[in-house]
Write a structure and sequence with these properties.
By secondary structure, the protein is of the alpha+beta class. Helices cover about 55% and strands about 15% of the residues. The chain has 2 domains: about 80 residues, Orthogonal Bundle (434 Repressor (Amino-terminal Domain)), CATH 1.10.260; about 230 residues, no CATH class. Helix 6 packs parallel to helix 9, helix 8 crosses helix 9 and helix 11 packs antiparallel against helix 13. It is globular and about 65 Å long.
């Protein structure tokens, strides 16, 4: 099993090995860690242990998977923190994000007893990413958030490959037994983003109406899932309506009896993923708590389900 300093020295070796031309890498590391040259040397040699925050910052900055450094994951799971996805700066990063998520879901779909748990403080991405207008709008917001500029939203300007990959991702998610933990205002942020872009004249009336129609289609499918207690592909579905969620937006994916992964957000558009048993179990405890505190909505709670959906429809219609 790795000792902490062995893992740490290998981590820095991987960073140096991944940098072509050694482009002032020492100064770059000092900037990322906010430390002196002497402090960096102690961290590189393993004399001073890296904090969890420092590990995450380095993995995120250099796009390195910490999990991938484990030669024997079953022996070193408690050393590893997480895999970080690179921050989304352009459409290429979105493509990488979609591909990475697709690979995870494909592993789960191949297992008959796979289970997905999702905490929906905001409407889950896979719920609407099959809708061409809404998926294009999401990609647009991600890129604009990074660029800090104010372009009009044009769905046709979004790469078509991303639209197709979003549709494939939704279809994959429907092939897994799923439990979603919702709050009543899960759609509020998405609706608010559409309203804001409209208020600032960055969207045409025609495109806004398209997004409204697609939101209603998303709600139709969600209501059908709730009342039939099945996904579109016939897998078991359950919705738990909660007054609040202590867990951030995220998911627990149980791929098999001995393999689970948790994904959770650490900023508005970036996620971490880990198979670390401590993180997985902490997330699972939170889910158990909300299952007890929340209200399970199914075919026997049709009135509650209709009221939940109708409240969201009124907000969509008001756009």
């Amino acid at each position: 099993m790795y000792s902490p300093n062995q893992f740490q020295t290998q981590f820095f070796q991987t960073i140096f090995g991944a940098i072509k031309g050694k482009r002032k890498i020492t100064q770059e590391l000092m900037d990322v860690l906010g430390c002196s040259r002497a402090s960096l040397y102690r961290k590189r040699t393993g004399t001073t242990p890296l904090t969890t925050d420092e590990l995450i910052r380095l993995a995120n900055h250099f796009s390195i998977s910490i999990d991938a450094l484990r030669s024997k994951p079953e022996e070193n799971s408690q050393v590893v923190v997480c895999t970080t996805l690179p921050p989304i700066k352009d459409y290429g990063d979105i493509d990488f994000y979609l591909e990475n998520t697709r690979k995870n879901l494909e592993l789960a779909v191949a297992q008959p007893n796979a289970q997905l748990y999702f905490t929906a403080k905001e409407v889950p991405l896979y719920r609407y990413i099959d809708q061409p207008g809404l998926s294009a709008f999401r990609y647009y917001l991600w890129v604009m958030e990074n660029m800090r500029r104010h372009e009009r939203f044009d769905p046709l300007a979004i790469p078509h490959t991303l639209i197709h990959k979003g549709r494939d991702l939704t279809k994959l998610s429907e092939g897994i037994k799923t439990t979603e933990f919702w709050v009543a205002g899960a759609f509020d942020n998405l609706i608010g983003q559409i309203r804001y872009v409209d208020y600032n004249s960055r969207i045409s009336v025609r495109v806004k109406n398209q997004l409204k129609e697609e939101l209603h289609a998303v709600l139709d499918k969600l209501l059908n899932n709730i009342l039939s207690e099945q996904t579109k592909e016939g897998k078991g579905y359950q919705m738990v309506l909660c007054n609040y969620l202590t867990l951030s937006d995220g998911a627990l994916l149980e791929i098999g009896p001995n393999r689970s992964e948790v994904m959770f957000s650490y900023s508005s558009i970036n996620y971490m993923k880990s198979s670390n048993p401590f993180l997985v179990e902490a997330f699972r405890r939170g889910l158990r708590y909300h299952k007890l505190e929340g209200q399970t909505i199914d075919s026997l709670e049709q009135e509650t389900a209709l009221a939940f959906i109708e409240d969201i429809r009124e907000k969509v219609n008001a756009l």
